[in-house]
TrEMBL record:
This is GTP pyrophosphokinase family protein. It holds the Pfam family RelA_SpoT. Residues 46-167 form the RelA/SpoT domain. It comes from the Bacteria. CDD domains: NT_Rel-Spo_like. Pathway: Purine metabolism; ppGpp biosynthesis; ppGpp from GTP: step 1/2. PANTHER family: GTP PYROPHOSPHOKINASE YJBM (PTHR47837:SF1). The lineage of its organism: Bacteria, Bacillati, Bacillota, Bacilli, Bacillales. It comes from Amphibacillus indicireducens.
Length: 207
C-alpha cells in the first residue's frame, strides 16, 4: 500500500527552491546589465508541477509515490530562455561553475532532438533548501533553450494537451516542419549574431 502524501508539506521545499533559483538566475541577468555586458540569459521562469500532472506522470512512468522525490526529476522546474544557441552552452558552463547546487545529470536534446522535434538542453540539479527541520535536498530540472525553441515547445505542449498526447498525424507533420524552421532560424541568427547584438546595444544606450 502506498502511503498518502501530505501535498502541502511535500511541495514546500520545491516552491522554496524554485523561488530561490528564479531570484538567483534573474540576478545573473541583472549583473550583466549593471556591468554593461551582453547577457546570455534573456528570461527566467519557474513552476512547481501541479499535483494532477505529478500523479499522471508518475503513473505513466510506473513510479511509486514514495519514490517521486528521487525519480520524478521535474517536480521543480526552471526555464532559462536565451537569444542564440551559443548562449545555451555559456549558461550551462555558468551553472556548472556554481557552488550553491550540484548538477547531477545533463540531457542534450540539441545534439539529438527528441522524436517530436523538441530541442532544449536540460540540467538536473540537486538543490539544498534550508527548512525548519534542517537541510533538505530537492531535485530541480533546468531547461535551457532559445526563443525559437521555446516558441515551438510551448505550441507543441498546448497541442499535446489538447489532443491528450495523440496529436493527429497531419499536425505532427507540420510540427516537424515547424521544428526544422525554428532550427533554421537559430542557424541564420547565429550567422548575424554580432550585427544583432550591436544593434541591440545601440538601442539600449538610447533608452
Ligand atoms: P510539463 O507540463 O512541461 O511539466 P518525458 O516526459 O518522459 O519525455 P522525462 O523523462 O521526464 O520526459 O525527461 P525530459 O525528457 O527531460 O522531459 C521533461 C520535460 O521536458 C517535460 O515535462 C517537458 O517540459 C519537456 N519536454 C520533453 N520532451 C518534450 C516534447 O517533446 N515537447 C515539449 N513541448 N516539451 C518536452 P512534462 O512532464 O512532459 O511536461
Amino acid at each position: 500500500m502506498e502511503e498518502q502524501i501530505d501535498w502541502t508539506t511535500f511541495l514546500v521545499p520545491y516552491h522554496q527552491a524554485v523561488d530561490e533559483l528564479k531570484v538567483k538566475l534573474r540576478g545573473m541577468r541583472k549583473q550583466y546589465e549593471i556591468e554593461k555586458q551582453y547577457s546570455p540569459i534573456e528570461l527566467v521562469t519557474g513552476r512547481v508541477k501541479p499535483i494532477a500532472s505529478i500523479l499522471s506522470k508518475a503513473a505513466r512512468k510506473g513510479i511509486s509515490l514514495n519514490q517521486i522525490d528521487e525519480q520524478l526529476q521535474d517536480i521543480g522546474g526552471i526555464r532559462i530562455v536565451c537569444q542564440f544557441v551559443d548562449d545555451i552552452y555559456t549558461i550551462v558552463k555558468l551553472l556548472y561553475a556554481r557552488h550553491d547546487f550540484e548538477v547531477i545529470e545533463e540531457k542534450d536534446y540539441l545534439k539529438e532532438k527528441k522524436s517530436s522535434g523538441y530541442r532544449s538542453f536540460h540540467l538536473i540539479i540537486r538543490y539544498p533548501v534550508a527548512t525548519i527541520h534542517g537541510e533538505k535536498f530537492v531535485i530541480v530540472e533546468i531547461q535551457i533553450r532559445t526563443l525559437a525553441m521555446n516558441f515551438w515547445a510551448i505550441n507543441e505542449h498546448s497541442l499535446n494537451y489538447k489532443y491528450s498526447g495523440e496529436i493527429p498525424e497531419q499536425i505532427q507533420m507540420r510540427l516537424q516542419r515547424a521544428a526544422e524552421a525554428a532550427f533554421q532560424l537559430d542557424e541564420e541568427m547565429a550567422k548575424i549574431r554580432e550585427e544583432v547584438q550591436e544593434a541591440q546595444w545601440i538601442f539600449h544606450k538610447k533608452k
